Amino acid sequence: MEKNMSSRRLRFLAMTVIGFAFVSSAELALADDNPTATAPAPAAAPAAAAATAASAPSEQKPLRKVEWTFDGIFGTVDKQSAQRGFQVYKEVCSACHSLNRIAFRNLQDIGFTEAEVRALAASYQINDGPNDQGDMFQRPGKPSDYFVPPAPNEQAARAAHGGAYPPDLSLIIKAREDGPNYVYSLLTGFTTPPQGVTLADNQYYNPYFPGQKLAMPPPLSDGQVTYADGTPATVDQMARDVVTFLQWAAEPEMEARKQMGIKVLIYLAIFSVFLYIAKRNIWRKLH
Amino acid sequence: MAHKPTTQAPGIKGWIEYRLPIFSFIDNSVGTKYPCPRNLNYWWNFGAIAGLCLMMQILSGLFLAMHYTPEATMAFDSVEHIMRDVNYGWLLRYAHAVGASMFFVVVYIHIFRGLYYGSYKAPRELLWWLGIVILLLMMATAFMGYVLPWGQMSFWGATVITNLFSAIPGVGESVVHWLWGGFAVDNPTLNRFYAIHFLLPFVIVGVVILHIWALHQHGSNNPLGIDVKTPQDTVPFHPYYTIKDCFGFGVFLFIFSIFVFFAPNSLGDPDNYVVANSMVTPAHIVPEWYFLPFYAILRSMPDIGIPFTGVVFVSSKLAGVIGMFGSIIIFFFLPWIDGSRVRSATFRPVYKIMFWLFLADCILLGYVGSQPPAGTMLVVGRIGLAYYFVHFVALWFVSRHEKTLPLPESISKSVLASGGHH
Questions:
Q1: Residue B216 catalytic?
Q2: Domain check: are A84 and A224 in the same one?
Q3: Is residue A229 part of a domain?
């Protein structure tokens, strides 16, 4: 569904061109997964709701909207921001959240040099094997290795987080309605619960979370990381940076896709005009 | 084609044609020897565009199949592998996923064009039937294809839809287990859905060939809905409609590309980027947009019995399933429900209004299908559902009593009278 405002505008334009009501009905249907949804269906483990509930119950607050550099048809990933976001992920998020679909080598996409990637990978110990003795062993990471998850399996992760399972972040931007603004709102939106709302142990209140109660404590506080480029590490800045990083992680092809799309559209527009002229010429002979 | 050629034309083309008359076959099918009504408007482009969609789906699907793994623990990962590691894999997958939606947009336009201009009427009933069969096959294909990425909505969509068969009295549960290949949607289900998803498009191709064959028997209907009477009423398919279809392809591909390159996930559900988990039910299970009107019918059916007595003859679940399938099956009867001898809604003032109301009702049902079936939505859904079937009952009577407008004498006279404008 919607990634951002400009793609929404774009799609509106496209639909006007089609002039076809079915798409609009689908848009109506899909634009907002569900403003009046009933309470989340019972999950196997109650705490799992924290990790899995994606659709929003009615009380969910409208998301804070940010103007992202990756919005729109010319949108690009701000590499400086993505690199800072990687730092936030590495120093904060990765304590609980895996990023299983990203290999160290992928980080060159957001401007890290090969040497930096090599050094970063080598700072991790990777389980490998079995070797020719049949034993598993540890070795320093290589650029082709994938990010090391904080817990070896789901059970270990749940055990470490009071039953909650912190979701993998590789696709989180695409796995939530209006993903970038959702993650930004969630990260910056923790508040004290309103009157009458009671929280269980290890529960926190966030109006942007479906159900409002989640097992994740507010992860960011001002100055939590020290940016090498001197950018002040406010909660707002860190949230923007980590969203930019996660947007790249979810859609590493985005820039290539949009750039190709512009060329394709220009080509098709010109091609269609020529075809229209040809059509007019051929049909004119009829009269 | 029945007569045997006696002489061989010179050259390679002649040599081949003498042995396999493929050039004259093409020329007779989509070339200079296939006469078409000269007054077809742009709504007639969508048949050819649907053919283009089918070809694109088969091609992109073939290349996806080379990288996809139909195994429950690996399917989601293999799709992400396609998105991230396969060269232009993202383009293949987005073209295929958006392509499915576009195929339905195009086919729905094609169907409603047929409804407006009475293309289902004699002598085109079998042509119409074959079209409905294609739609049913498309629905089955799309449904199974949506299961393959093995995301949350794949899994739960599959669970909800296959469970429909449990409404069959007596053997329902056994049928569902047989469909699943187990006691829940799981790896065997994924495997068979993949196999069938790969097979059905080629079945569709077969039925499309029959569809086109039936079309060529009496030729296209046209916006006036009157028969072709003289050669002046027609133009050869090539070059007149080949060029017009090519222009249509250009415009269609432009719109298609907007979605593929700039809003590839806008028609999908974010939940399908969460890997399937049988232990966690999504808050709101919705099918893809093109199934929403049918989903609304499924969920809007009440228990059918004697009011206020608690006597139920047909449970709402079974009624929903019957209603959902019935909403498509009823189209098989349309050529006989509609008794009007005039085809085109242009000359049927009452039917024209009914057509637009029916279209609006389908859109309304689509919206209802996207919402939880409770409160106002349930009531709106039931009204929409009732109207859907009332439309056909009303059509029976209206079509037999409607005072239609005078028909033009011929296509060519009408075209020339309007200044030959297309």
A1: yes
A2: yes
A3: yes
Q: Read off the pLDDT band of B62 (50, 70, 90).
A: very high
Same domain, A151 and A75: yes
How many other β-carbons are positioned within 10 Å of the β-carbon of residue A40?
A: 20
Contact between chains at A33 and B289 (C-beta distance less than 8 A) = no
Q: Are A49 and A11 found together in one domain?
A: no
Sequence-distant (6+) residues with CB within 8 A of B11 are: none
Cα radius of gyration (chain A): 23
Report the half-sphere exposure of B222 (CA within 13 A, side-chain side).
24
- Residue B326 to residues A23, B124, B338, B365: CA-CA distances in angstroms? 24, 22, 17, 15
Tens digits of residue pLDDT in A127-138? 999 999 999 999
Say whether B261 and A265 touch across the interface (CB within 8 A).
yes
A167 lies in the same domain as A284: no
Q: Do A1 and A93 belong together in one domain?
A: no
User: If DSSP codes are grouped into helix, strand and coil, which group holds residue B418?
Assistant: coil
pLDDT on residue A91: 97
User: What is the number of structural domains in chain A?
Assistant: 3
Q: Is residue B245 among the annotated active site residues? A: yes
Q: What is the pTM of this model?
A: 0.89
List the helix and strand counts (H, then E) for chain B: 15, 4
Q: What is the mean pLDDT of residues A205-214?
A: 94
Check if the beta carbon of residue A130 is closer than 8 Å to that of residue A60. no
For residue A230, being part of any structural domain is answered with yes
Residue B21 has pLDDT above 70, yes or no: yes
Same domain, A27 and A42: no
What are the beta bridge partners of residue B304? Answer: B314
Nearest chain B residue (CA) to A179:
B270
| Mean of pLDDT values over B132-153 | 98
Q: Is the pLDDT of residue B269 over 80?
A: yes
Residue B182 has pLDDT above 70, yes or no: yes
* Amino acid at position B201, single letter: P
- Would residue A175 count as lying in a domain? yes
Which of B243, B279, B359 is opposite residue A279, by nearest beta carbon?
Answer: B243
Which sign, positive or negative, has the C-alpha torsion A182, A185, A191, A194? Answer: negative
Contact at CB, B283 and A258, closer than 8 angstroms: no
Asked if the model's pLDDT at residue A54 lies above 60, the reply is no
What's at A227, amino acid-wise? Answer: Y
Query: Which segments of A58-215 are extended strands (E)?
Result: 125-128, 137-140, 204-205, 213-214
Residue pLDDT, tens place only, A150-169: 999 999 999 999 899 999 99
Asked if residue A56 and residue A67 are part of one domain, the reply reads yes
The reply to whether A166 and A222 lie within a common domain is yes
HSE-CB for B357 with a 13 A CA cutoff: 18
3-state secondary structure of B398: helix
ipTM score over 0.90, yes or no: yes
Tell me which residue in A167, A174, A261 faces B257 most closely, judged by beta carbons: A261
- What is the identity of the amino acid at B295? Y
- Give the domain range for residue A127: 113-146
pLDDT at A60: 77
* Percentage above 70 pLDDT, chain A: 79
Q: Residue B390's pLDDT band (boundaries 50, 70, 90)? A: very high
B71 a catalytic residue:
no
B123 Cβ contact list (under 8 Å, min separation 6): B217, B218
CATH at A246:
1.10.760.10
Query: Could you tell me what percent of chain B has a pLDDT over 90?
Result: 90
* From B245, B269, B271, B402, active-site residue: B245
Q: Span A87-110, mean pLDDT?
A: 97
Q: What is the pLDDT of residue A98?
A: 97
- The answer on pLDDT for B120 being more than 60 is yes
The answer to the question of residue A271 being in a domain is yes
- Residue B262: strand, helix, or coil: helix
